Amino acid sequence: MAAVAALFSPSSLCVPSSSRKTTFFCSAKPWRTRNRVPDKHRRNELESISQRKGKEEGRVVKSMKNKEKSLLYDCNLEEQQVLDTNDYRGSSFLNAVVKVYTTHTSPDYSLPWQKQRQYASTGSAFMIGDGKLLTNAHCVEHSAQIKVKKRGDDTKYVAKVLAIGIECDMALLSVENEKFWKGTEPLSFGRLPSLQDSVTVVGYPLGGDTISVTKGIVSRVEVTSYAHGASDLLGIQIDAAINAGNSGGPAFNDQGECIGVAFQVLRGDDIENIGYVIPTTVVSHFLQDYEKNGKYTGFPSLGVLLQKMGNPALSECLKVSDHEGVLVRRVEPTSPAYDVLKKGDVIVSFDGISIGNEGTVPFRSSERIGFRYLVSQKYSGDVAEIGIIRAGNNIKVRTIVSPREFLVPYHNDDPSYLIVAGLVFTPLSEALIEEEGEDLLGLKLLAKARCSLARFKGEQIIILSQVLAHDVNTGYDNMFLQVMKFNGIAIKNIHHLSHLVDSCKDKYFIFEFEDNYLVVLDKEKAAEASPQILKDNGIPSGRSPDLYEPYVDLSEDNRLLDLDIGDTPITNTEIDSEGLLWA
């Protein structure tokens, strides 16, 4: 594949506040190349990469596997911006757009007891009323400090995060200093734009310190891969220039109403001016979720792997009308739909709206959109009515919708860890895979991370990430393996392993790893050596703070432990066939 043209710009449309060239692109998956753009002609693996302020200038700490085309937060610095001074120079609503200065302190997933070196970035945000600001999640994630500055003001005010939505790449901020709000007016939200409607993107991108305005039109409205959030939600594609630092800035229609939030772009050798805006429907869902629950609970999912039914013989065999329905291939065990949907069911309607054989539903006057859009309009805990055909019979079933449970999470703010006589155990995450590299995992463990579903809530893949050398663990060299059992008991998650170690009454700690690799430690000698190992390595505690809490078993049905949950692509963008999709 042809290498992507040089991508220079900082943090996902957030600009690292340094003269150094800092890049932070994103693809459909946060830490690792998990997403591809859903279009058949643009199906490429995407991921986040970042060049931060490090020991070496421009040190790349996130890598990109497929460089032909990528969704990323930053654009080429040479992208020209068009300043429309005639229309917007005197517009008061521009004063509601502010510049965001963030100092980030990201976790160190390889050494989970400490943090990485701090780095800084800048982005954009805007006022929405009630003392709140709206911006992108990737602009303030892992923030140690956030400051905001108004247009025409040199004073920076401290802000704090009220809520952060990773899936929708949205964050809600507040500023307590009343001086910040003096003389300001919040923006008003407009309707979802139509194709070819004019759009104006406002923010603080690279190239200067003052506000910038770029103009374009709406090119497409469809369910889109969200680079930072590992999710598929409604998105607006525009051709206005979006550059590093525009993240979190508003997009306006001709009436001066905010129709969305700039958040990512698509970049490739044969791609020009493709940017994306989070529409007000998604923004409204995020805000109402926060108001309703006092926190962000997420966008729900059915948790079903579906097959499109474009072949007439397939429809006839399953006794389904032509151009109707999608076939259920698998239901996630952690999904509430697991109790009502079965393999072989054909879903023909969702809340009374018919679903076509391509998995789409009517949208506006003459458009169609993936029925995932209907699911995403609901809130966690809502009930949905699903029409299905099972063995030729039309049935209506009801199920609760909830966010998906990932066996290997995409984002993990505070990684858990447990150190037993120098053996460092931690849950496998996309962030850890990104830091350590895929080669270290091996094909078997990597395949499990990419193609396995969680069998119960709270399930994790626990790996031995390293061995801190000491006489007590002599003979057990550094390895990166999944631990399967402790003293004959299957391990469910890191908290379960910690509980098993603490309650062990046997003479030996016996860890069983994949491929029958065995590690045995003398319990008393391990207890004696552990304090010295921690001291020698400058580690403050032998476990993360969350593991001091009492263990609660979240696996309500232990029969699920025997389920085969492998060989299933876990996201739409892991699927090579256009005939399959998750909803």
From TrEMBL:
Annotated PDZ domain residues: 287-355
This protein's UniProt keywords: Hydrolase, Protease, Serine protease
SUPFAM superfamilies hit by this protein: PDZ domain-like (SSF50156), Trypsin-like serine proteases (SSF50494)
Keyword Protease: yes
Coiled coil: none
GO molecular function: serine-type endopeptidase activity
Region annotation (Disordered) ranges: 39-58
Single GO BP term: proteolysis
Name of a matching Pfam family: Trypsin_2
Domain of life: Eukaryota
InterPro entries, per the entry: DEGP_PDZ, DEGP_PDZ_sf, PDZ, PDZ_sf, Peptidase_S1_PA, Peptidase_S1_PA_chymotrypsin, Peptidase_S1C
Family membership: Belongs to the peptidase S1C family.
Protein name: DEGP protease 2
Organism: Rhynchospora pubera
